[in-house]
Design a protein that fits this description.
Layout (H helix, E strand, L loop, with lengths): L4 H18 L3 E5 L4 E3 L4 E6 L6 E7 L5 E2 L5 E3 L2 E4 L8 E7 L8 E6 L3 E4 L5 E2 L4 E7 L8 E5 L2 E6 L3 E4 L8 E7 L3 E2 L3 E3 L1 E2 L13 H9 L5 H31 L30
Parallel strand pairs: 2-9, 11-19
Antiparallel strand pairs: 1-3, 3-7, 4-5, 4-8, 6-7, 8-9, 10-12, 12-15, 13-14, 13-16, 16-17, 16-18
Helix pairs in contact: 1-3
Amino acid sequence: MRYSMTNIMWLLWLNLLLSYTTHQASLTVSPSSSQMFEGQSVSLSCEDDSSAGWTLLRNSTEETKTQCGEWGEPAGSSCTISAIVPWDSGVYWCESREGATSNTITITVTGGAVILQSPVLPVMEGDNVTVHCKTKSASSNLPAGFYKDGSFIRTEPTGHMTIHRVSRADEGLYRCKMSGHGESPPSWISVTGKPTITPPPTTSTGFSSSSSSSSPPLSHSLAVLVLLSFPSLCVLVLLVLLVLLVRRCVRRKPEDVPAEPQVVYSSLRSTFTPPQQLDH
């Protein structure tokens, strides 16, 4: 069986594309906060639905692209820092053997008494977001003032503030301040737009017009479900293409063999001569 160069290139391309499509990881951190008190125990994990090996890396204030074994305790695709310190502040991410990368998480470690607990990942536009002002010494929530880009927003008596239906205008640097305890380092809150889904075209009948105008918009959960199922659909299509290509190569017929020359018997004549009779 012979493989042409085109078929080999197709197989390599599909294998490469399939590996990058299926190997997607998400980096999570526990506790889920972009700011940490010095001495806290922090756990980072590369969550993935495949068997690909992922390595946790970071760029800190003192080092660049160092692996978990140099600053934490690795355990598979996870890493634990038993007592985090200010020089552990930096950007963390996961990276596979093929070079694929996950989302990044920025962690700020402070030796101060106040931190602002804010989302570590971008916030979806239209969602509600709550930030908490925490102090290391007090066990209960205390009144705190909140600031955005250096401007005072308001004071909350319980130490947490909720931003309803966030928009791109809410993106920025946030910090909080507690009287008698100090203020937190600033944290950047990112806002990302919701995915848009184009509805199917409707007919011009009165029934369709009235039903489309009265129907509610697609919910956020439906949009998330579509986004999550799209990579799986791509993987399924690629697998089908790969199987069809392999079957085509296996069923390829061998090259034509020249036929043996045929003997034409019509041109042959009998040369048989009967024996002559003997004279007596």
